[in-house]
Write a structure and sequence with these properties.
Blueprint (H helix, E strand, L loop, with lengths): L1 E3 L8 E7 L7 E8 L6 E3 L4 E4 L2 E4 L5 E2 L5
Parallel strand pairs: 3-7
Antiparallel strand pairs: 1-2, 2-3, 4-5, 5-6
Length: 69
């Protein structure tokens, strides 16, 4: 999870990535949220994660606040 710091005209945002354990250079963004900077992350099993109440299967799901309003 990363906090992307905004400025006077842009709010902070939160971004989450997963890294492929077989290829550390392969990353996938699974979570983007605007106006957030705290992350409550709970892994439910090897593939399912809950980030700030949003449940995602890291193999094929993602959350982007611009698309998932």
């Amino acid at each position: 999870m990363y906090v992307i710091r905004g400025n006077a005209t842009v709010a902070n945002s939160l971004r989450g990535e997963v890294i492929d354990h077989t290829n550390k250079d392969k990353k996938k963004t699974i979570y983007k949220a605007n106006r957030e900077e705290d992350a409550d992350v709970e892994w439910l099993d090897d593939f399912i994660v809950c980030i700030n109440g949003i449940q995602l299967d890291v193999r094929n799901d993602s959350y982007d606040w611009r698309k998932n309003k």
